Amino acid sequence: MTDAATLIADLTTRARTAARVLATLPTDAKARALRAAADALRAAEPAILAANATDMASATEAGLSGAMLDRLRLDAGRVAAMADGVAAVAGLADPVGAIIDETTRPNGLVLRRVRVPIGVIGIIYESRPNVTADAAALAVMAGNAVILRGGSEAIESNRAIHAAMVSGLVACGVPADAAQLVPTTDRAAVGAMLTADGSNGAGAIDLIVPRGGKGLVARVQNEARVPVLAHLDGINHVYVDGSADPAMAAAIVIDAKLRRTGVCGSMETLLIDRAFPDPMSLIDRLVTAGCEVRVGPGLSDTLPRAVDADWDTEYLDAIASVALVDGVDGAIDHIARHGSHHTDAIVATDEAAATRFLAEVDSAIVLWNASTQFADGGEFGLGAEIGIATGRLHARGPVALEGLTTYKWVGYGTGQVRG
Amino acid sequence: MTDAATLIADLTTRARTAARVLATLPTDAKARALRAAADALRAAEPAILAANATDMASATEAGLSGAMLDRLRLDAGRVAAMADGVAAVAGLADPVGAIIDETTRPNGLVLRRVRVPIGVIGIIYESRPNVTADAAALAVMAGNAVILRGGSEAIESNRAIHAAMVSGLVACGVPADAAQLVPTTDRAAVGAMLTADGSNGAGAIDLIVPRGGKGLVARVQNEARVPVLAHLDGINHVYVDGSADPAMAAAIVIDAKLRRTGVCGSMETLLIDRAFPDPMSLIDRLVTAGCEVRVGPGLSDTLPRAVDADWDTEYLDAIASVALVDGVDGAIDHIARHGSHHTDAIVATDEAAATRFLAEVDSAIVLWNASTQFADGGEFGLGAEIGIATGRLHARGPVALEGLTTYKWVGYGTGQVRG
Fold this sequence. Notes:
homodimer; Aldehyde Dehydrogenase, Chain A, domain 1; Aldehyde Dehydrogenase, Chain A, domain 2; 2 domains; four-stranded parallel beta sheet; 13 helices
């Protein structure tokens, strides 16, 4: 094995041992340990900021962009927010041990499906050091061991955050290997994590969650031999039906596109029913608010024309493509061809149109008369999220504690044999 | 693309179109179509038996083993059982449309998680032609399009069964592409199914379910680029605690090992607590019943000794390995090292020991005072199963209709913006 493979094999094997301990920790033990980790983060603020200053100096020297430097930068407020986030996770309802359903068979055998942790979760992320704390807290609260692989530009910050977290966990009896940080910036370590399916005799990683830009997610999805929860694109649509209230439509369109343009829940394409009385009013509102608009056939001759690629583009910027469609059927067809199964919304007063849209649009999140910017675990009441998934298995949409668990069947007999 | 890749791309693209129709079919439309498919199977009995005779002749000429010939063989009774199975699936509760949970956010947004079909399911199986009908019925009842790839030795039987099924479905308005049979025996078609992740621009297969021997499952797990639900091994344990009732222990051990030895739920290793009064009584019962027993240290000197490989072997035969262990801790440790996360049972009157075993043994199914041979969707009250899964994500243990669905988030607003 390469050095990276040997390193990851050691980490995964330790993680599996820790996972066995974590799986049976009572809720209050996990919560107490996470509150101690939050306290340790607050106490370690000077060390964390010093480490971050080292990372910032290297990153500045390396010529990283302003946006990347901003993601990397920590200050007292950001460290406090990180600690608050960890403490908040400690207050969430623990899904582990919940009985999903129970049945008594005619032979008297009682069968329950009981929520249990997944086991070992790998998190692969980029420059934001707060993911070290956020992701570790969520994974541990759901009873999983976690292996964290952050961006090389944040290695010193991540080490300091990780050391503080672990000191808090260990002080409350949680194994140190519950949250391990990959100690190298060797990119081969990522490859070793993505193929850690146990076939080399080491512990397996049960699930990988990538947190970062499209390049990272695409690499993870292409190379992974273990399951991945992620979304690659958020090509989200708002469809304004002919029956929509124009004022509500305008408010939702503006919010969906412009509240924050860089988030995965932002609208990229506006679909307007040909029966909607005044499509240009919606477009004018976007333009007036500073959005570049690229229009399809039948709309303004003075605005830029959308080309084919626009319908498949996630701008993550103040740009929107706009198409006229033939009612809800046209909207459903457009989304089936161009959507990314993330979040799509309809604005309508016609309940039949809305019901069809909600049933037939095949996305993780479908909304009626609400902005796509609600695509967020916090907004969904989940407390925090490890990410948003657009795959079809296990968990869809915002993934929080429950998505980091699975179940087992537990049967209670009195000597039943099948005979 | 190769011929096989082009063929599968055509099938998957058709399947996705059919899946959009299936996803919104009401329960009674699916049930009616499956009952019509069952009737069509009964009516096609002569054609199915004629096709099967062709397969049997080729298989006999090719020198297939008696066991393989038996799996391939159809007769009037087996065709009737196949039709009854399809009709039974039509009577199962439809999971699609069920509301998993619902929450109203402080801003008034109502969020539901609603069960929806997965989409397109690929089934890869070997010689049993009844899988063509069973698997198609389950997939379609859960609202999925299915692509069936059976064993080359059963191709004529599968074609006849598939033709009958589709005639019944189509007569009730279900698209013909809801259940497609791969029309070639080219092995490259399997590879094309396993990599049908949509990256070639064709429709994706969302989930592959292999049905067959370990060689097939291993190939599917190794080559698949799309999610797989399966189990490779069923290295199942019965642990007899010192507190066990001896008569119950003997009955469960005999049933777990010998009721049927070739099923994935059969016991392969018996673990006996050193505190159990008379371990040899259990071993003698097995030997008397015709089971070969291979023992670990501390047990009979006259019986064959188990070697290291025995603890990791799925015999699927009248052979059992037997080890003495130090209480429930010893049993949990042995299973952690050698188990395959399938089905493990404890026989005990000591509730504390049983509770620990059920919590700490990391298997899809854990049982207290019941035989491992209950590992079966029918026995679990699921009506029928597509298979048993030992992975950790999406579905574990017997997978039936619910396991062939996923969910979407459906939000009902009144104009909410996040702004």
